[in-house]
Amino acid sequence: MGRRLCQTWRLGSRPNLRQMHSAACDNVIPDLIEAKLLDEIQKVKSLTAGAAAVVGKVHNLPEKPKDIEDDGEFHYGVLGPKGASDSGKPSAEARRFIDEKTSADSQRVYRNAIVLAAPSRDGLDVVRNAIKEYLGWEEVSTQLKDQDLDPTRSELLSMNRDAARKRIPDAVQQAYCIVVTVSDKNDVQAFKLAIDNKPLFQIIKEDARSRIQDTAISAEAMLPAVRTICGAKARLPIG
Fold first, then answer.
1. Residues paired with 5 in a beta bridge
2. Cβ contacts of residue 39 below 8 Å, gap of 6+?
3. How large is the average pLDDT for residues 173-192?
4. Of 68, 59, 60, 56, which Cα lies nearest the Cα of 96?
5. What residues have CB less than 8 Å from 182, skipping those under 6 apart?
6. Residues whose CB is less than 8 angstroms from the CB of residue 29 and which lie 6 or more positions away in sequence, other chains included
7. pTM of the full predicted structure?
8. Which of 24, 90, 112, 160 is the most exposed, fewest CB within 10 Å of its CB?
């Protein structure tokens, strides 16, 4: 068998940036990617923008069902990676936030009062890959920090690092394309949105499947167990 080439081989005395980046990506610690993932999700303001003016309370990355009160007010939550779901397939974690109040033994009363945004599984894979690409360029920058790079390679390194960093927020925004909530048949449903440049909650609100309306619903028209009035905004009653 022939000798395997080192992944960080160089042309002459100048570093081969792409090969160095490939090796650096292979060595990125998965836990570092997950930590960066949560940090990047929190930074994307479009996931929660405008929601506070409509709903009773906004919850960004709630950790447990009890973080979303069961008080009859309209709640909007942005789930973390554990809540990743697919169209027609709400994850067990997402279901817990709809069905449970504090634990599996404590069932939520106002299930219809919650609308959740969740990332798709495929979308999260894209985000993780974007993060790994960025961290790889960061590592290459660290390795070459004390070397005398020629201006062209120095600029190329900077361009690659900056481009990788800028891809992350857009990847996060595109990943959050799943809505998990209670359907008009009182079932937990998950459906996919077409993501554009609007704030996520606005896209959710404009989708008829979310059953969010601008006119208040009278208490008499609501089932007692699913009352979700919040000012002039409400979820339509079940049935």
1. none
2. none
3. 96
4. 68
5. 98, 111, 112, 114, 188, 189, 226, 238
6. none
7. 0.85
8. 160
